[in-house]
Structure formats: structure tokens, C-alpha cells
Amino acid sequence: MAKLLDYKVNNGINNMKIDLENLEEAVKNRREEPVIRFYGWQPACVSLGRNQSCENINIEYCRENNIDIVKRITGGRALLHDDEVTYSFICPVNFLKNGESVISSYKEISAAIIDGLKHLDIKLEFGNKKKAKTSHEYCMLLSTGADLCFNGKKIIGSAQYRKQGYILQHGSVLFSYNKEKTEKIFNEQIQKDSITCINEINNSLNRNDIIYALKEGFKNYFSISYTHT
């Protein structure tokens, strides 16, 4: 059975530590089915991609406003984690139909998210591979063929890491975003026509709605059952 860790809020360091520990536990025990986790962030946190520096981050602003900065084990660009639901999906490469391919595995995991959010009448599509005009490449301003968008605007950004035949993919579902705060952190303009969030699509939805939809999407798409921890 797939292992499901229900939604909890942690600080940035502990969130990244838990994801890594779950991956290492899956590798050690050669888990055959996924480990799925949902979580939030308190305080707000900027996560940097595995190979990304913090030279373009306004560290002083983050310090003054109690915003943590952490390093992810996964790749990709910097992201502000604030008002969102984050998912983590860990599985062996051979659990997926095309797990050996990075792009195909992204799309396969993301397809389960698409199926889940259909239950809330949120119809997502894959990105169009168009790069937004951004000097520092804030994650949510970049759209690749594996990212998820709503009406052409990015709403879910994901990143991936692989270890000994296992995949860790985690990603952020934006509930809302603070344009002014984000611009100050990343020292660049945020293009509103490139980003959207759950509150803009349907402000009657809450976190439990999103988490339930994601759980159902993973369960039905991959034909799995859950054991809760």
C-alpha cells in the first residue's frame, strides 16, 4: 500500500529534512509503492534549487520579515512558500510507466494532479514551454512542458531528485501570492499574466478541498490504496 502522510505545517528546514528522510527510508526498504505527503510552511520560506545561489535574493528583506531561506535537494529555481499546499511524491522509477525519462515522469505524476483537481472543476494543462521575461528566473515565472497551468497561467511548480532508482518529486499549489512581497524578495517584477492561484480561480475552496482532490487524484490515477501515518 502507498504510505500517506497527512497535512502538517513545519518550518522550511524541517520540511526539507522530512522529504529527504522519506526518500532515504524508501530507498533503504526498497518500497514498491509511493510515499505521499502534504504540508505547509510556517514561517514563510524561500527555497533555493539544489544548484542555485542566493545572490539574487533580498536576504535583508527576508530577515526583517521573518522569511526563512533553505536549500532544496531538488533542482529548479527559487520559490516563495507561503500560502500554499505542498505535495511530495516518492516512488521507485519502475513504478511509473516511463520513469527513466525525467520529463515523462514529471508528466505522469502531474497527470494524477490534473485528474484530482478536475473534481473541483479546475482544469489544468501542461505548460507551453515559453519562458517569461525574468532576469532572475523566479520559479513561478517559468513555464516548461512539465509544469501545470490554468488558462495559460502557471499555478503548480514542481521539482525532482533521484537516488538509487527512486524519484522524489515535490511541488507547490499556490492558494494565493503576495505580489509586492514576492517582488521585494526576488528583486524583479512579477507578471500577473504568468501566474494564478486557487483563490483567483475559486475563492470558496479551502486547503482541505485541495488536499482531498490531490489524494483522490493520486489514488485513482495510480490505482493505489493508502495506509495513513
Low-confidence stretches: none
Overall pLDDT: 92
Rg calculated over all Cα atoms: 17 Å
Describe the main β-sheet briefly. Answer: 8 strands, mixed
| Major β-sheet strand ordering | 7-8-9-10-6-2-1-11
Percentage of β-strand residues:
25-35%
Portion in helices: 25-40%
User: What is the tally of beta strands?
Assistant: 11
Question: How many individual helices?
Answer: 6
Shape: globular
Straight-line distance between termini:
12 Å
Order of helices and strands: EHEEHEEEHEEEEHHHE
Structural class: alpha/beta
Report what the structure shows.
The protein has 229 residues and is of the alpha/beta class. It is 30% helix and 28% strand. It has helices at 12-29, 59-64, 102-117, 179-186, 198-201, 207-222; strands spanning 2-10, 35-41, 45-48, 68-71, 79-81, 84-92, 125-126, 148-150, 153-163, 166-174, 226-228. The strands form two sheets. An eight-stranded mixed sheet has the order 7-8-9-10-6-2-1-11, with helices on both faces. The longest helix has 18 residues, at 12-29. The radius of gyration is 17 Å and the shape is globular.
